[in-house]
Amino acid sequence: MSQPPVPISVKSLTMLPTPELVKSYIAAGLDCQHLEVEGDGQHFTAVIVAEAFAGKRLIQRHQLVYAALGDRMREEIHALSMKTLTPEEFQK
Question: Is 39 helix (H, G, I), strand (E, B) or coil?
Fold first, then answer.
């Protein structure tokens, strides 16, 4: 007698995002002068330089990045550590 098929979750079929993919997500939603992303598929670090950060507090800068990522932050990316800088801060 054969075994019934084992259910496979949709989550297990999806590929983990690459640093390049996360970089493209951020760049699509935020005009960046410089953008570096590194990571292992779940945990990422990013250096994000954008004029949009000028005059904003750290939490507001992070909110701009989260807005650019949208639902991907909840669904695809487990953790993102960011350094958010204005172009002037990046030059120093």
Answer: strand
The number of distinct structural domains making up the chain is 1
- Residue 80, in any domain of the structure: yes
Q: What is the value of pTM for the model shown?
A: 0.82
Band (2; pLDDT cuts 50, 70, 90): low
Give the three-state DSSP class for 37: strand
Q: At what angle do helices 58-69 and 19-29 cross, to 10 degrees?
A: 110
User: Is 5 inside a domain boundary?
Assistant: no
- Which residue, chain included where needed, has tokens 């075994």? 3
Predicted confidence at residue 15, as pLDDT, reads 79
**CATH code, 59:** 3.30.300.90
Separation between Cα atoms, residue 6 and residue 20, nearest integer Å? 33
Q: Are 61 and 68 in contact (CB under 8 A)?
A: no
